[in-house]
Design goal:
This protein is of the alpha+beta class and 342 residues long. It folds into 2 domains: 187 residues, 2-Layer Sandwich (D-amino Acid Aminotransferase, Chain A, domain 1), CATH 3.30.470; 137 residues, Beta Barrel (OB fold (Dihydrolipoamide Acetyltransferase, E2P)), CATH 2.40.50.140. The chain contains 7 helices and 19 strands. The strands form 5 sheets. Strands 3, 4, 5, 8, 9 and 10 form a 6-stranded mixed sheet that branches. Strands 15-14-13-16-19 form a 5-stranded antiparallel sheet.
């Protein structure tokens, strides 16, 4: 079951609010000693999180299907990069990381218990059964907080942001579990940033721009790749081909070139192979780093945008050198233990 975005927090009778976790969406299937973890797109996750298999055996009901999120808690909050590092072909590396950065599972819906299929039951009933089934939890399996008080939800929205949660999810008490339907509501943070446009990728259909590659200068003066923006109509993608053409010429000593001068610290470059889509073409066309655009984003993960940004406008009035990390608003981390303890 999916969520549609909202700019404001809905209010009204019969609504339940939960923190929006920033991890891997995961469905856990348990039948006795057999435990399987599956992603939202039905990709197997079991081999990547062996420590969670043992935790689910220890703390979930003997036969159940539970919807939730796999997260890793780091010193500054949820660590999505540590999650990505788990998607690796070498089992030895997975086992090492499982010991060094163990994952947790946060449960927020119960789809089956014993022989009973609960997907047709109202959410309020599923939540009651989930609380009862997981009431004695411990270890790395947690029950997500939930409230019917919109004031508490607003507090979560602001206070837990620094811990890596990226908003609030809203559900109706009478809602059945509807697969692939955007019947929940999510409210996420939005901020603005001015970024250097230092490259682009072609659209899969060819002949038009697919995405713009964004950069910010760090304290050492290196242009770091921080994400992409791809929120364009087909007509706009064609227009961008002509607009970017002058900046494709005379590209020398590009900051994201594969080879850097000896002794010079490298910049983060785009083009790293995706762990989720091994066949995806991540090559890009370099541009002279002279264009600046304003984008909106929800939050940072480490020193790059966690999700794709939304293009807002060109900023010809901005000097590219002024597009630095220090312009970004950084939330003060909340104690992740407080979220788990809730």
């Amino acid at each position: 079951m999916l969520a549609k975005a909202s700019a404001t927090l809905p209010e009204g009778e019969g609504l339940v609010y939960e923190p929006k976790w920033d991890g891997f969406r995961c469905i856990v299937f348990r039948d006795g000693d057999e435990v399987e973890l599956g992603s939202r797109n039905e990709r197997p996750l079991t081999r990547y999180f062996p420590e969670l298999v043992a935790e689910c055996r220890a703390h979930l009901p003997a036969r159940c299907v539970v919807d939730g999120e796999v997260v890793i808690a780091g010193p500054d909050g949820l660590d999505f990069e540590a999650l990505l590092a788990r998607i690796h072909p070498a089992q030895s590396r997975i086992d090492r990381l499982a010991a060094e950065t163990p994952a947790s599972f946060v449960a927020f819906d119960l789809l089956a218990l014993g022989d009973e299929d609960l997907r047709g039951a109202p959410f309020a009933e599923r939540r009651r059964l989930l609380e009862s089934a997981l009431g004695g939890l411990g270890g790395a399996v947690h029950l997500t907080p939930a409230t019917r008080d919109v004031a508490v939800a607003r507090d979560w929205f602001s206070r837990f942001e620094g811990a890596g949660l990226d908003g609030v999810v809203v559900k109706q008490e009478g809602l059945a579990y509807l697969e692939d339907k955007r019947v929940m509501t999510k409210v996420k943070h939005e901020r603005r940033a001015d970024c250097v446009v230092a490259g682009f990728r072609w659209h899969a259909s060819g002949g038009r721009v697919g995405s713009l590659l964004l950069g910010l200068y760090d304290a050492s003066g290196h242009l770091q790749h921080v994400g992409v923006t791809a929120s364009f109509t087909d007509r706009r993608r064609l227009e961008l081909v002509e607009e970017l053409a002058p900046y494709r010429t005379g590209v020398e000593d590009h900051p994201w070139a594969a080879q850097r001068p000896a002794g010079e610290a490298p910049s983060r470059r785009p083009g790293a192979q995706s762990r989720w889509n091994q066949g995806k073409d991540l090559s890009f066309e370099p541009l002279r780093p002279e264009l600046v655009c304003e984008v909106s984003y929800d939050h940072l993960q480490g020193d790059r945008f966690r999700h794709a940004t939304t293009f807002r406008r060109w900023r010809p009035d901005r000097d590219p050198a002024s597009c630095r990390y220090d312009q970004l608003e950084a939330a003060v981390p909340a104690e992740l233990a407080e979220v788990f303890a809730s």
